[in-house]
Amino acid sequence: MANMDLVRQRLTERLSALAGRVTDIETDMQQPLDDDLAEQAVDREDDEALDAMERATLAEITLIKEALARLDLGTYGICTSCGNVIAPERLEAIPTAAQCIGCARAGAAGVAS
């Protein structure tokens, strides 16, 4: 099993970086629109891209907070679906993984159907 203190440190650092990103995005989105209509169109397109980036960042923040909660509960590395141990290689690649690869694939297959 991975060093839980190191996992917590990495997750906490990533959480901090993402929180900074959200702040930056929100600051950019609050900038007033240009007087030029063509520039306004570009600004609105930029805002749409920033909004998508913010949603993705907030989703990752949620996953990190859930992983930190599992660390606090002592259930980090245990599949939330079947209760089996999540492969260390999977956790190394995806530290926020809540499911073993089998359950994740089964869930993805169910979503695709």
Instruction: Describe the largest sheet.
Output: none
- Total beta-strand segments: 0
**Beta-strand fraction estimate:** under 5%
| Helix-strand pattern | HHHH
Number of helices: 4
How big is the Rg?
19 Å
**What is the first-to-last residue Cα distance?**
34 Å
Mean pLDDT: 89
Low-pLDDT segments: none
Helix content: over 70%
* Outline type: elongated
Structural class: mainly alpha
Q: Please indicate the count of domains.
A: 2
Would you write up a description of this structure?
This protein is mainly α. The chain has two domains: 1-76; 78-113, no CATH class. Helices cover 72% and strands 0% of the residues. The chain has four helices and no strands. The longest helix has 37 residues, at 37-73.
Task: Give a summary of the structure in a few sentences.
By secondary structure, the chain is mainly α.
